[in-house]
Amino acid sequence: MQEKQINIAFEQYSSIEELLPEDRELAAEAIKAMAGSYAPYSHFNVGAAVRMSNGQIVRGANQENAAFPSGLCAERTAMFAAGAKFPDKEMVSIALCGGIYGRLTESPATPCGACRQVMAQYQAKSGKPMSVIMIGADKVWKFHRVDDILPLIFDSI
Question: What domains are there in the chain, each with its CATH number?
């Protein structure tokens, strides 16, 4: 038997203002995307923004439904819209944030497992790392590749 470890590297910032301009723009778009959230049950609004290799940004917001779990997370809303609108372009990065009644959570909101797997699929499709920025009111985390938020990615097919 051998004991192994998985190390995860990320950067932490105290606000989006510390991010590089391109990441700051994407984070601001994710925050704006929260306004499109439809969350009458959880009241937890989530916004996401995806930057494509052509520079375009596509936003998404969570959409709840009384026939739970028929809704969809903001991250997948943004990624699926981006994939449909720009099928020949790669997703370079994604930013996401969450809040109660539209007010950002103190700590960064983190994506669910299903969203992480979709991120992994788009990263694999591009053959390049996709960065993930998670935004909170008190701190921001930046991961340089999806592998760091989803170790042991399902890729056995």
Answer: 11-148 (3.40.140.10)
Q: Phi and psi at residue 128, in whole multiples of 5°?
A: -130, 155
- Kind of pairing between the strands at 44-52 and 91-100: antiparallel
- Set 17, 29, 75, 90: catalytic member: 75
Q: Is 16 helix (H, G, I), strand (E, B) or coil?
A: helix
* Peptide linkage before 21 cis (omega within 30 of 0): no
Q: Token match 């923004």: residue?
A: 49
Query: Tokens standing for 96?
Result: 């996401």
Summarised one tens digit per residue, pLDDT across range 46-99 is: 999 999 999 999 999 999 999 988 899 999 999 999 999 999 999 999 999 999
CA-closest candidate to residue 132, choices 75, 63, 72, 60: 75
- How many Å apart are CA 25 and CA 29, to the nearest integer? 6
41's tokens: 């049950």
| Catalytic residue status for 75 | yes
% the chain with pLDDT above 90: 91
Per-residue confidence band for 101, with pLDDT thresholds at 50, 70 and 90? confident
